[in-house]
Design goal:
- The protein has two helices and four strands; from the N terminus they run E-E-E-H-E-H.
- With 89 residues, it is an alpha+beta fold.
- The chain has one domain: 3-Layer(aba) Sandwich (Glutaredoxin).
- A two-stranded antiparallel ribbon has the order 1-2.
């Protein structure tokens, strides 16, 4: 059995199912993120990119990861608060 991108699903920050099939027809950028990483300033550029192209169907999916150097130790709520306070989303 072959699985396509649109067959996938994940849990959103509220723990609810997010099915990728709702992204059909959009341009999707998937990013592995960590708020304590040296690359964290990229959030600013990602937010700017999203704002510039969101009306054209551009979507960014950020997946927090704590597996590499423990650079994302926070809970979903803490990560959301960090992003909202610092980058607006």
């Amino acid at each position: 059995m072959t699985t396509s991108f649109y067959d996938l699903e994940c849990k959103d920050k509220k723990g609810e199912s997010f099915k990728f099939d709702q992204l059909k027809g959009k341009v999707v950028l998937i990013v592995n993120v960590a708020s304590k990483c040296g690359f964290t300033p990229q959030y600013k550029e990602l937010e700017e990119l999203y704002k510039k192209y969101q009306d054209k169907g551009f979507v960014i999916l950020g997946f927090p990861c704590n597996q590499f150097g423990k650079q994302e130790p926070g809970s979903d709520e803490q990560i959301t608060e960090f992003c909202q306070l610092n980058y607006g989303k």
